[in-house]
Design goal:
120 residues; mainly beta; five-stranded mixed sheet; 5 strands; 6% helix; elongated
């Protein structure tokens, strides 16, 4: 789907797996295609992320996109995952509470982190 760019859906928060010990990929603070999406945040899924950041499909650049699923059903009743700690939400739903466990409609979102391959 990303023309050869890898996407990792992880149960662990933002692990780069094979890229983790490599200096070939960086989280690039200059990668700001628009004000809504930076190089990390919260989205509804990969389709939502690509719609907001179409640069991820650029044939001239190479990215690793990590997605970590956050499911309301996996959250404890007290405390748990909060919206404001994970970056800008770029999805189409409307968060109404501080904790995803308290959301009346939203069931699942994804934290994303974008790493761009650097030329050596």
């Amino acid at each position: 789907m990303l023309k050869g760019n890898p996407i990792y859906i992880s149960q662990y928060s933002f692990q780069l797996y094979k890229c983790e010990s490599s200096n070939s990929y960086i989280d690039n603070p200059d990668f700001r295609p628009n004000d809504a999406a930076w190089y990390y945040g919260v989205c509804d899924g990969i389709e939502n992320l690509i719609a907001v950041i179409p640069e991820l499909l650029s044939p001239e650049r190479e990215f690793v996109v990590l997605l970590t699923e956050i499911s309301k059903s996996d959250q404890p009743r007290d405390y748990g995952w909060r919206w404001h700690k994970w970056g800008e939400y770029i999805g189409t739903q409307t968060p109404t509470t501080e904790y995803i466990a308290d959301e009346p409609i939203i069931e699942t979102v994804y934290c994303y982190h974008i790493y761009e391959k650097i030329s050596k």
